[in-house]
Design a protein that fits this description.
The chain is mainly alpha-helical. It is built from six helices and two strands.
């Protein structure tokens, strides 16, 4: 059977104007895809901090800085501007790495041809990303604090009392954020690949 170049483009599931995409175009798609996914991750956590009376809106970037450089860079319900700026860069780097990984995986193995397939793949990607982040990356430093509630025992009149440390948001906000990260990453990748 003789298969033409046009038939291969149609079979791939990702038609483009020029057929094969250059490395530069793929890098641009991965970059935009990652940044859009990072915004999807950040929105629920930032909105939760904004509407909560015991949190501030920009605790997420402060938490990223504190997780890497020490817990003294995190203030619950407050603003430390240098950790916020550094944390925003860390979160952008995380989002870029996520976009590169998704783009490489999707280009090689996934052929989502409909929007429901794309959203489903995105939800699966978000769930796997959350599992990796929550159970593999976070415990490496500071037992996941300040993203996870770390239990610190204090001694009160000779009794050890467990006290939960400050956290950025409850787990459901991160699960929702990673679901949005997966969906926005997947949809952005699909839309950019189809142009």
């Amino acid at each position: 059977m003789n298969v033409t170049h046009h038939q291969l483009r149609v079979l791939s599931g990702y038609p483009s104007r020029t057929g094969v995409l250059s490395i530069g175009t793929k890098a641009q798609i991965a970059t935009v895809t990652g940044l859009v996914g990072g915004l999807g991750l950040a929105v629920p956590v930032i909105v939760y901090g904004w509407v909560s009376s015991v949190h501030s809106a920009l605790e997420l970037p402060m938490a990223a800085t504190a997780w890497i450089f020490g817990l003294d860079n995190f203030t619950q319900n407050g603003y430390q501007w240098s950790p916020i700026v550094v944390g925003a860069l860390i979160l952008a780097a995380f989002a870029l790495i996520n976009g590169i990984a998704y783009s490489g995986f999707a280009d090689r193995f996934l052929r989502s041809t409909t929007m429901p397939e794309t959203v489903g793949v995105g939800l699966a990607w978000g769930f796997v990303s959350w599992l990796f982040f929550w159970y593999t990356m976070l415990p490496v430093a500071h037992a996941g604090a300040p993203f996870m509630a770390s239990i610190t025992p204090i001694t009160l009149w000779g009794l050890a009392v467990p006290i939960a440390g400050p956290t950025v948001a409850p787990v459901w906000a991160f699960v929702l954020g990673f679901a949005l990260l997966g969906m926005t990453t997947s949809v952005a990748h699909r839309l950019l690949r189809r142009q």
